Each structure stands twice: as C-alpha cells, then as structure tokens.
Amino acid sequence: MKPEHFALLDEARRSLPDGFKVEISGDTIVMTVGPSGIHQRNLLLVRRQFDRYAPVELLPSENTDLVSPRVGKSRNPDLTYLPGEALETADNQVPAELAAIAVELVSPSNPENGWVGKVRDYPLMEIPLYLLVDAGQKTVTLFSRPDGTKYHRREDIEFGETLRIPEPFDFELTTGDLLPY
C-alpha cells in the first residue's frame, strides 16, 4: 500500500467519533463498540498474569494503535506489551514491530475480526505472539512463530486448562477463572 493511501485511511479513522474502537486492515476500516463487563473482567484476569511475568523493560498498554504503514495496517489490540520508550509519545500510535505480544478478546458481534483479520494481519505487522481469548467458544489460542506472512504455530486450549506463554514472558497462563459469554 502506498504511504499516501494509508495516510488518507488513517485520517478518516481519526475523524470518526469517540466510543468506537477503529482499525485499518488494507482498504477496510473496522469499527467495534465498547466492550462488555465480561470482556473487561476476562481481560483484567489475563493482564494480571502477564504483568507478573513481563520483563521490566516492557509495559502493558490497552487500546494502543499498532501501526504498520509498510503493509497498510493499523490494529488496536485489547492489550499489548511494548518497550517503555515506545510509550513516550503524546500520540496513540506506535510501530507494530515493537510489540512483544497482541492479546485480543473475541468480540461476540464480530468474531471474524479476531479469528480471520488479525490472524492474517499480525504476522504481516511483525508481532511475534498473538493470544486470542474467545469467551463464546470458551477457548484460548496462541499463535506464534511468524515469518512475515503467517504464523506457523497454533496452540488451542479450553477454559480451565493452562497454556505455556513463551519468552519474553515465560509462564503458564491459567484460564480457570475466565467467564464465557
């Protein structure tokens, strides 16, 4: 995608009203409404675990735009961990390739965004780990080993099981307290 085309889409995204989560995927602007209480609760339970094991140089950030103009993408994960200096900006955009992980909780109104769009976009954006929590299916999926085009590893568990989160976090994610929709 040409940088000027991406800039035009990004300008349109920024002009939309508050209260929506807005992302760019190719020529498509994706909008979702604010999250539910279950969504927020599940996100907090996952975040608390990551916070305990995150390296000191990585800070959590919720709803930060990860941008990759080179591939025409701007995505806004529910949670990501970034080097502290990446967040020393007045803007809400950071280069996607700085993210250590993107964590998404599947939206019941648009599950394709998490399961299709972001599985496609995040490896293109050079995000090494993608954790997808689907409260509708009661599953947690970790995508890893991207090669710049796709993820080569996928691990699936059901709520109640544990999932090994690799470096730089290196811990067992527990899912027994997550609530389904």
What report would you give on this structure?
The structure is a single chain. With 181 residues, this protein is of the alpha+beta class. It has one domain (35-174): Alpha-Beta Complex (tt1808, chain A). The chain is built from three helices and 13 strands. The strands form three sheets. Strands 3-6-8-9-10-11 form a six-stranded mixed beta sheet, sandwiched between helices. It has a five-stranded mixed beta sheet with strand order 2-1-5-4-7, with helices on both faces. A two-stranded antiparallel ribbon has the order 12-13. Strand 1 (20-25) and strand 2 form a beta hairpin. The longest helix is centred in the first third of the chain and has 17 residues, at 37-53. It starts with a helix and ends in a 7-residue tail after the last strand. The relative contact order is 0.15.
